[in-house]
Amino acid sequence: MTAVVAEVGTELPPLSVRVTRADLVRYAGASGDFNPIHWSDRVAGSAGLPGVIAHGMLTMALAGRLVTDWAGSPAAMRTYGVRFTRPVVVPDDDEGALVEISGKVTAVTETDGGERIAKVAITAAFEGKTVLGRAVAEVAVPSE
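RESULT FIELD:
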């Protein structure tokens, strides 16, 4: 495993994820969120959406993966929050929707207990437009 470099300005390795309708079905089963806007074009359209959309929490989880992959463990994540700003429209084809995720360390602090915490600003985009706003994670990183 590569050592985590956590300095202000460190850019995390980008992550590109394709989300397909099959992914939405699997996520619905795991989460219990069977809202038809996540699987029915007819219902999504009647709700004023441009098509079937990915679950917001699925998009959030994918963005969180960027940070946990970089940190080396999901247990390193201390806090994580986002605002849902735009939906990810998932076409009914084999390619799905491409979500592009990046992150950058904006601060590194030390807790009273001596734990180093990196604050990471995350950007998640679909078709060149941001889909998560105020996406920030705080993650424990090794001491230098």
